[in-house]
Write a structure and sequence with these properties.
Helix content: over 70%
Number of strands: 0
Shape: globular
Structural class: mainly alpha
Order of helices and strands: HHHHH
Number of domains: 1
Protein name: H(+)-exporting diphosphatase
Number of helices: 5
């Protein structure tokens, strides 16, 4: 993990840059929900559940910031829907991780 952070600080790209970017772009374009599933699957195949949950959390954070901006007079129901979808994904991932952990004795 420290190596990834150091690489980023030195101007390099995260090893999963392309996959994470594809997921973020797909979520930001909710008119094509099938792209979200494909991007999520690509990230999960290339990394692990933790990377997918981290990316989902970051995307959700930006959606939350957007909601705060909406309160200043701007409006975007699509961002609200996106945040709700991401929250469901994170909750499901946590439940699955908990079930797997119990099976493996974590």
């Amino acid at each position: 993990m420290a190596l990834v952070a150091e690489t980023a600080l030195l101007g390099g790209q995260h090893p999963l840059h392309d996959e994470i970017s594809a997921l973020a772009i797909a979520v930001a374009s909710p008119e094509t929900p099938e792209k979200i599933g494909l991007a999520r699957k690509a990230l999960a195949e290339r990394s692990n559940e933790h990377a997918l949950l981290d990316a989902a959390g970051i995307i959700g954070f930006f959606a939350t910031i957007t909601i705060l901006v909406d309160f200043t007079g701007h409006s975007s129901q699509e961002f609200v829907k996106m945040f709700q979808r991401m929250a469901k994904i994170i909750a499901t991932g946590r439940r699955i991780r908990c079930m797997i952990g119990k099976c493996l004795g974590w």
